[in-house]
Design brief:
- The structure holds 2 protein chains of 2 kinds.
- By secondary structure, chain A is of the alpha/beta class.
- Helix content of chain A is about 40%, strand content about 20%.
- Chain A has 2 domains: about 200 residues, Glycogen Phosphorylase B (Rossmann fold, 3-Layer(aba) Sandwich); about 170 residues, Rossmann fold, CATH 3.40.50.2000.
- Chain A is built from 14 helices and 16 strands.
- An 8-stranded mixed beta sheet of chain A has the order 3-4-2-1-7-8-9-10, sandwiched between helices.
- In chain A, α4 links the parallel β8 and β9.
- In chain A, α3 packs parallel to α4 and α7 packs across α12.
- The radius of gyration of chain A is 22 Å and the shape is globular.
- The longest helix of chain B is centred in the last third of the chain and has 28 residues.
- Chain B is elongated.
- The chains are: A alpha/beta, B mainly alpha.
Chain lengths: ~400, ~280
């Protein structure tokens, strides 16, 4: 039975990130399966009103002002009139809200319940239970998920977390991982992208050209505290001092960038540490294939798309053992480390030695394995199943 | 039992709840067991600081009414300071001084510079708040002293603790009060006294507490007795209030804290944000 699904989240294109691409890819695959899908988000600058994306995917940029970190104000009612209008006009049968940080998603869940529509909530992040902000967000989540009929989490750890935070019976929460578009993250020379101009090339690390000169460690993440940038700085300082054959390429932007720049100044590492700044999503693959090891130092992570993208490009992945990370890749593709400088350094050195000794798995083989793990079409069919269960339950 | 992995399909439905669901949940991992008397003993720090604030305000009041002559307060507080200075070196056998590498001459120089500057600036400080209404001054002083008590470093490792802010608030209060006194000499005396009481005394107090447990307990009792008797002479009603407050602080609130531990329910699991345990001070600035 085809549904008319309304995806709601504050986070969507032109913003870039995990939730944004998840919503986009899932919508596209659901359209492909014959459902009618619209996306609702708030206006980004002058991008307000209705826009059409690939395959006629309709996006409503509601004229609401973002308040903090691209989330709208959590007032519950200021979006009511607009959401009602969209729900009626699009004959929506299922409301699918994304991300606990998005106020618009919470509003939509609440209004969906009052309109008697089936609603699904996808939780993309993990929260603790100790600090004030999580206590407040958890209370909000408990209230808004009271109306939601189903929830989807991206990892088993995420499900445990959501079940506790939202006081929801775990049987109503499904685990459906994120996926990676493996056709875009392929190993090979960084030329596949016709969009990249000479200017983009100049940005790429030199190590792309001089592979034999050593091992290149790639780090791509937003440079914020939660992504473990402080830890990364400690790791960089130690590795740069002990191993002269390691080069580092860091992609991403954020308030913690200054920490890395200071480190580079202080230890005179300009020739070995490259800071690329904010990367376009299409540049990510080219940066990844220029490296040999991918390092993730996140302090908390529900799923971690970045390590899957890196593994899909055939890189060796070293990551902190946090949240859902251990569930994402099999142990032979992923080196897990405790979130300490010593352990992470040991992990990177082990991976580098493996590479230099020629014992690292072949890039193409790794890519082929990762390609079979995750697929957006599979995610869409599993999500569809949740919608089916949900609406049949609602009909009774 | 289903393995918790995402890269393999187990064939079970996505919402299947297996037996290992929440098996990594941990409760009350970092809960500390408090014993009542140790909490009472530790609450002494708060009692002592409250005592310091009371003594400060009392001295101001006595100077305001003319009972206390500035020279008396100045000489006695200076004498006590020298005694404290001597004690500060004696109790740890001079190791602290050797580590810091400061000479006594340097200390004496700082004292002289501080005293002469305060003395020179006291006429200015005296007239600084002339245009401000006395009620405002009292209100500001009250808030500042409360703030001092709130942000004071009682030894807890919490975000609210800020010794710098706390000291600044106390000194601001002392400048406010000092400007209402009769003459520049009064102002000078009160500000010097405030520095001794709020800046220097806590240093010695902390060291004393570390060196001997008995001393800390005795000091607490001494502070409580001094405050209550002094208040009783000036304002009996305030003394009664102080007794109630001190009793609450030292006995009832610790009891409450110990009782509340029963209701502690903290949950931990793999979703918790990892803590960075390394010392990154060499890398981060």
């Amino acid at each position: 039975m085809p549904h008319s699904i309304c995806m709601v989240s504050d986070f969507f294109h032109p913003n870039a990130g995990g939730v944004e691409s998840h919503v986009y890819q899932l919508s596209q695959c659901l359209v492909e399966r014959g459902h009618r899908v619209v996306v609702v988000t708030h206006a980004y600058g002058d991008r307000a009103g209705i826009r059409y994306l690939t395959n006629g995917l309709r996006v409503y940029y509601l004229p609401l002002r973002p308040m903090y970190n691209q989330a709208t104000a959590p007032t519950l009612f200021h979006s009511l009139a607009l959401l009602r209008c969209v729900f009626i006009r699009e004959h929506v049968t299922v409301v699918h809200a994304h991300s606990a940080f998005s106020s618009l998603a919470h509003d939509a869940l609440f209004h969906a319940a009052s309109f008697g529509l089936a609603s699904i909530f996808t939780d993309h992040s993990l929260f603790g239970f100790a600090d004030v902000s999580s206590v407040l967000t958890n209370a909000l989540l408990r209230a808004s998920l009271g109306g939601a009929t189903r929830a989807i989490c991206v990892s088993h750890t995420g499900r445990e977390n959501t079940a506790l935070r939202a006081a929801m019976p775990p049987g109503r929460i499904s685990v459906i991982p994120n996926a990676v578009d493996a056709t875009r993250f392929t190993p090979g020379p960084p030329t596949g992208n016709p969009d990249s101009t000479c200017h983009d090339r100049a940005h790429l690390p030199r190590s792309v050209d001089r592979r034999c000169a050593g091992v290149t460690v790639v780090i791509i993440s937003r440079l914020v505290y939660r992504k473990g940038v402080d830890l990364l700085a400690g790791v960089l300082a130690q590795l740069a001092a002990t191993r002269s054959d390691l080069n580092f390429v860091i992609g991403g932007e954020g308030p913690k960038r200054i920490v890395l720049e200071e480190l580079r100044e202080q230890h005179c590492l300009h020739d070995r540490v490259t800071l690329l700044g904010a990367l376009d999503h299409r540049q990510v693959r080219d940066v990844l294939v220029g490296g040999d090891i991918f390092l993730n130092t996140s302090l908390t992570e529900a799923f971690c798309m970045a390590i899957v993208e890196a593994a899909s490009c055939g890189l060796q992945v070293v990551s902190t053992h946090v949240g859902g990370v251990p569930e994402v890749l099999p142990p032979d593709l992923l080196t897990l480390c405790k979130p300490t400088v010593r352990d992470l350094c040991a992990g990177v050195i082990a991976a580098a030695d493996r590479l230099l000794a020629g014992k690292a798995p072949d890039r193409a083989t790794t890519h082929a394995r990762v390609r079979d793990f995750y697929d957006w079409r599979d995610v869409a069919s599993r999500t569809e199943k949740v919608s089916n269960d949900d609406s049949s339950q609602n009909d009774n | 039992m289903a393995r918790k992995v995402l890269y393999e399909r187990s064939g079970l439905p996505d919402n299947h709840v297996s037996r290992n669901f929440l098996e990594t949940l941990r409760r009350n991992v970092r809960v500390r067991k408090y014993s009542y008397w140790s909490v009472v003993y530790e609450s002494g720090v708060v009692t002592q600081q409250l005592g310091s604030v009371c003594i400060f305000v009392l001295c101001w009041w006595l100077m305001e009414t003319g009972t206390l002559v500035p020279s008396q307060l100045f000489t006695s507080s200076l004498a006590l300071s020298f005694l404290g200075y001597y004690l500060y070196d004696v109790i740890d056998g001079g190791t602290g001084r050797r580590c810091s590498g400061r000479t006594r001459l340097a200390d004496l120089k700082s004292v002289l510079i501080f005293l002469s500057f305060t003395y020179g600036l006291s006429p200015l400080l005296k007239t600084l708040t002339e245009t401000i209404s006395t009620d405002t001054i009292y209100a500001m002083t009250t808030f500042m002293l409360l703030g001092h008590l709130l942000f004071f470093d009682y030894g807890a490792n919490a975000a609210i603790v800020s010794s710098g802010l706390s000291l600044n608030m106390a000194l601001f209060a002392s400048v406010c009060l000092a400007s209402r006194l009769a003459g520049p000499l009064h102002t000078f005396t009160l500000i010097t006294f405030a520095c001794e009481l709020f800046a220097l005394w806590p240093l010695l107090q902390k060291k004393l507490k570390k060196q001997s447990t008995g001393c800390h307990g005795m000091l607490t009792v001494l502070f409580a007795v001094v405050v209550v008797t002094a208040l009783a002479m000036v304002a009996p009603a305030c003394a009664a209030l102080a007794i109630v407050l001190l009793f609450l602080l030292s006995f009832l609130i610790p009891l409450w804290l110990v009782k509340l531990q029963l209701y502690k329910d903290n949950i931990h699991g793999p979703w918790d944000e990892a803590e960075i345990k390394d010392d990154l001070s060499g890398v981060l600035h």
